[in-house]
Write a structure and sequence with these properties.
The structure is a homodimer.
Chain A (H helix, E strand, L loop, with lengths): L2 H27 L2 E8 L5 H10 L5 E8 L4 H8 L3 E6 L8 H7 L9 E6 L16 E7 L6 H4 L1 H6 L2 E5 L11 H11 L5 E3 L8 H11 L1
Parallel strand pairs in A: 1-4, 1-5, 2-3, 2-4, 5-6, 6-7
Helix pairs in contact in A: 1-4
């Protein structure tokens, strides 16, 4: 990149960090813990969220769904009685703080709880932008292969935990779990890796115990 | 985006289009047909390329591998005797024409053939940037779910064909093929959809017949 472009990117990051810190403080003051949910397209982010929310009774969930287009996931969540709103980026590949700031008035946020923000399905750009979260979690799958930490390191570096989804398909794929774990640990030794299945519910009790300990 | 930012993006696209047209003309003059291979992380892009290249005897293949980091895929291709070079974007989420221009001198390009460019694993940004290709193909998977055309329309709009990979896992997932097909056809009625399995080789003969007819 040229020097001019680098300066523009630095300005964008700095402005975004400032907005994000404001959101985080606002949410903290309301007793709301915010989780930025990252993952590639089709990783099963919404299904994982539903599994998590169902296992956290007594904790009020709020969801902001980020998608390039469509409100498929928001309708799915609202149909389950989960308060959710949709951001459509119309092409943009990640969410930024200002978009979350604009959506917060559309949620009741009437009780303490957890705000889940499902970011755009993309293992690259979303990891670069804070959006007011207290932590990021990353959802990967056994079907996407064990080399992802080596190819997309930033998302793994920034995640507080990694959910390895689609465990129900493990018998049918060649997934080298030791190689995956080694890759994650080299980037982020403190992040737990939870083997889960959005389809069967396997592993989500452990995820929820871990989330409750972080609140 | 602010007007200033829109202008910057328009300048970037215009400059990239110009470079890409130059690359395409250069490759055409050498009898080389260029295919820009798009797909989400873990869609099986490299495995599909190997399946295609193995079924096109007599056509010289060249590969440029795009990755944020690592040269896992390039080593895999070179080990199979396929002439391949690596671009590492070190964070950038897509390839641009100038990167391809810089890599071409590193390939022999001594005979007519096909240049496959495996773009960064990302269903969003790569679709926005030409890189000198004669056509794009998009690789999706049955494990990523049937809603992808609705959520990531641009990649589907721009692809000359869609490969629906991991067909071997169809018995184990809930994949609504009619919904997927409907979504693709609404965006891109002319694009064929090939059901393939990088693991078993299913479907690639049909893909290769179609590619040969395009050359």
């Amino acid at each position: 990149m040229e020097t001019k472009d680098v300066q523009i990117m630095e300005d964008i990051y700095a402005e975004n960090d400032q907005v994000s810190e404001g959101i985080q403080q606002d949410l903290s003051a309301r007793g709301i813990y915010a989780i930025n949910v990252l993952g590639a397209p089709g990783a099963g982010k919404t299904t994982c969220l539903i599994n998590i929310i169902n296992r956290l009774p007594g904790i009020t969930p709020y969801v902001i769904e980020g998608d390039i287009q469509s409100d498929i996931d928001t309708r799915r969540l609202n149909d389950l009685g989960i308060e959710s709103v949709q951001i459509n980026t119309n092409g943009a590949c990640h969410l930024e703080g200002v978009q979350i700031q604009n959506m917060l008035p559309k949620l009741s946020l009437s009780k303490p709880g957890i705000l889940f923000v499902e970011n755009i399905g993309n293992l690259v750009c979303p990891a670069e932008f804070m959006i007011g979260e207290h932590m990021k979690i990353l959802i990967c799958t056994v079907t996407d292969g064990a080399d992802k930490p080596y190819k997309y390191p930033l998302a793994f570096e920034k995640a507080a935990a990694v959910l390895l989804n689609k465990a129900d398909l493990l018998p049918y794929v060649d997934f080298d779990r030791a190689y995956f774990t080694k890759g994650v640990q080299a980037l982020n030794p403190d992040a737990p890796i939870f083997l889960v299945s959005g389809k069967t519910g396997e592993g989500f009790n452990e995820v929820c115990e871990w989330i409750k300990a972080r609140l």
